[in-house]
Amino acid sequence: MSYEDPLWKLRHALAGVALALVLAVLVAALLGSLLGDVVAGTYGARVAFYSALLLYVVVGAGVLFAKVAQHEKRPLSPGRVGLWFASLWLWPLLLARRRPPDAGAP
């Protein structure tokens, strides 16, 4: 195994996002079922909520991996998986850009 391999360098991030995604899919299934039962009480509503939540976390996994994977160097731990899991649900915050203060504003 070559330590120059890009996938080897990203192994902690790959493992973290994969484990967090598995957990997020399970949580999305539970939330989809609960929300579907509360809102309409039909199988179609449960499927719709689950599909929307699943799409949300899968897109989030891609965005999260693209934004922070190259900076992840620490070994995987339960705390790191928890951080990846929370980040999967909060990924839109990564897209919010901070604006620099206007230099010439009065």
Describe the structure.
- The protein is an all-alpha fold and 106 residues long.
- It is 71% helix and 0% strand.
- The chain has helices at residues 6-9, 11-39, 43-68, 78-89, 92-95.
- α2 packs across α4.
- The relative contact order is 0.16.
- The model has no long low-confidence stretch (mean pLDDT 86).
Nutshell version of this structure?
This protein is mostly helical and about 110 residues long.
Please outline the helices and strands.
Blueprint: H1 6-9, H2 11-39, H3 43-68, H4 78-89, H5 92-95
Features:
106 residues; mainly alpha; 71% helix; 5 helices
What characteristic shape results from the CA principal axes? globular
Mean pLDDT figure = 86
Give a quick account of the main beta sheet: strands, pairing sense, barrel closure.
none
Strand content: under 5%
Order of helices and strands: HHHHH
Low-confidence stretches: none
* Helical residues, percent: over 70%
Distance between the termini: 58 Å
Number of helices: 5
Radius of gyration: 18 Å
Question: Helix- and strand-based class?
Answer: mainly alpha
Q: How many beta strands in the DSSP annotation?
A: 0
